Amino acid sequence: MFVKTLSALYKCTSHLRTIKHYSSSSTAMKVTVIGGAGKVAQPLCLLLKQSPLIDELCIHDIGHTAALAAELNHVDTNCKVVAFSGTSEYGKALHNSKVVVVVAGAPDSDFMPPEKMWSANAPIVQDIVTNIAKYASKSFLAIATNPINSLIPMTCEILKKRGAYNPNAVFGVTTLDTVRANTFAARVLGLEPECVLVPVIGGNTEDTMVPVLSSTKPSPEYTTEEIESITATVRKARENMLKLKPPENGHFASAFACARFVISLVKAIRGYPDIIECAYVPSKAHPDVNYLSTPLLLGPGGIAKNLGVPKLTEFESCLLDNAVMYLRNDIQRGEKFVGALHTPECDPCDVLIPRCPKNWCDFQKEERNKCK
Predict the structure, then answer these.
(1) Which keywords does this Swiss-Prot/TrEMBL entry list (predicted)?
(2) Binding site members
(3) In the chain, what are the domains?
(4) How far apart, in Å, are the Cα atoms of 321 and each of 12, 212, 314, 316?
């Protein structure tokens, strides 16, 4: 029985042990995680270490990273882990990186109000992106630090000023929204979450994310009440989780979602076909904003095709129209921070269309009353 168990285990894990040979270091898949000692980064690095598609995982943080790298190197997968610390070692950490993942931020910034979160994280990401432009200008950049709605416009402006901008290579990682939408939709549909896909478009905040439940795969069968409930649950998920856990707890769902996006990007760079992920990117998919999260077809050069805004129901269209009002100001804040302003300010309170269908508003009131 014991021998059979070992045999089954070997069959399940043998694909992880494929030894890959490359002619030079420039062809190796190196992924660098900036902010690698943080609460999201530690489980993220463990997940990335398990991928047979990554040859070298580099961990960088202002604080100590050597112990984390040493422990990860005990995991018996082929990916090599190296560590660097401090601002003086950005160059070493970023050298020959194909993908750079930014999860750095101020301590406990996820628990801050939006304005304080922006004030705390913007200078940190600004410094990181400046170094990326200097040492890894050809890399693919995935930013998972919040607030993504503003940090991606800021990042793009920094890269433009330094001649390192590639609109197909900068991504705001919004995969956590999609992962949550898949999970909540699967519960309602009675399906396994792995079999459900719900695109989430718009932005990365409660007021800007739009789960497109009408595009659920497999074909959706929701009642109006279920659509409203899933939408509210996805949008409120971050707030509800922050109420449940103290700041020192781990961020496992965030790490899982970020790892999923990074591995999808690595697959696309390596030439795997039909890789589609939602991400917040420079975009012309909506006439009123220059950045939007939409489904993307990824390829060896990054974004092979922006698949744009899916066909929306009246309810989803209304949510997106109102999300754009907030997105414009979020984008403007990021551009203004680095002295570039392309997006006119917009007053979210001055919305000419109804905020949302009456049944949605009634549902929101009912939910608020339940919490009192």
Answers:
(1) NAD, Oxidoreductase, Tricarboxylic acid cycle
(2) 61, 121
(3) 26-172 (3.40.50.720)
(4) 47, 13, 10, 9
